[in-house]
Amino acid sequence: MIRTRLREAHPDEAGFYSGRYPEGYNHTVWSDHVERIAATVAFAAPWLDYYNITSLADPSAGDGALARALISLQPRIHRAYVGDLNPGPELAQGWNSVTSYVWVNLEATPLIPGLDALDISRQNEPVDLLVCSETLEHLDDPDAFLVRARLSARSILITTPENETGTGNEEHYWGWDSEAVSAMLHTAGWNTVDHLIFQPLTAQTYRFQMWMAHR
User: Fold this and answer.
1) pLDDT value at position 94?
2) pLDDT at 95
3) Per-residue pLDDT, 107
4) Taking the CB of the first residue and of the last residue of the chain, which one, N or C, has fewer CB atoms within 10 A?
């Protein structure tokens, strides 16, 4: 099992991401990101019906591409909570396709950035699906996040790099293999129902783990 602390957390995460993505994150800039989004949608698709997903939360939605694709694939999704530390204009404007949409203006905290989105998502009841696409490796305390997430969501969709050991990406605090992520989910009380490793064809920088788990 491999789990490596790559770097300490940035003291001003909102400022860090604003400087890194001044116009907000746009996944189409990188071909492997486009591949990963498409592969994640395909991975999640069978579970949308199986767990009757009608609501979701994505506290690190970026440009919202993954959440939008899942909503398009599952028309029964009528409630969505999305946010990001540095949103692009499309995310901040909201989506007309969702009956009950809440844009969460996230505040970075030393413990769990994005926790506000989880707390808001359960004001009425937990959402059916929590989307954590390329999220855990950015968190100072991913274990605490996974524990708190069980209060806010019935299922969780995760993608994260597989066995990242270098420190080239300044956004990433953690690197781990699939065995380590499996242990994190189990310790936090999640039950894994599906898992695969995805290798983009257009870039060899990362392989990605994909996980679906249910509480």
Assistant:
1) 56
2) 55
3) 41
4) N
- What is residue 143's predicted lDDT score, i.e. its pLDDT? 93
Q: Looking at residue 144, what is its pLDDT?
A: 87
* φ, ψ of residue 201 in degrees (nearest 5): -85, -25
The domain limits of the chain are: 30-163+172-214
Per the document, the length of the chain is: 215
Fold of 30-163+172-214: Rossmann fold (3.40.50)
- With beta carbons less than 8 A apart as the criterion, state whether 201 and 34 touch: no
CB-CB contact of 213 with 131 (8 Å) = no
d(CA 145, CA 6): 18
Residue with tokens 């129902």: 193
Reported as a single tens digit per residue, the pLDDT across 48-87 is 999 999 988 888 888 889 998 998 899 888 888 887 777 7
Beta-bridge mates of residue 160? 209
Residues in the chain with pLDDT values less than 70: 92-124, 167
Check: CB of residue 67 under 8 Å from CB of residue 121.
no
Whole-angstrom Cα distance, residue 32 to residue 73?
21
